[in-house]
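>> received
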Amino acid sequence: MEFTRTCPACGAPNRVPARHLAHRGRCGSCRAALPPHQQPVDVDERAFDEVVGQVKEPVLVDFYADWCAPCRVAAPHVLEVARDLAGQVVVLKVNTDRNPGLARRYDVQGIPNFVVIHGGRTVVQKAGVVRADEMTAWLN
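>> returned
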């Protein structure tokens, strides 16, 4: 699976392999620099497995649901981490309603639920609303 990153110079979409989500690149159209991915990436189970299996950087996973008010409260904090740590971490969002098997795999009992994975292993798991500074501390 490949992800896309829009060129800030020309607006062209650029395909990015999972293993390069945290890396800088060059636009295939205009050759301008492409910054590392700065947004949480909404993934399904297949994309999740690919990213977690390929990236060398830590991965922060936000298990959420659209109807969940605490998840909406946590979302700006997740976005802040994705922007502040772009190039150092990859931030994924997993909708538990659309991916119940993945939620079961990580024993997600309540949402929002955050998991930090590094080297294929779970390093931190925490349920409930968490501020960006606490998430950043997990990742450092």
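>> The chain has a mean pLDDT of 96.
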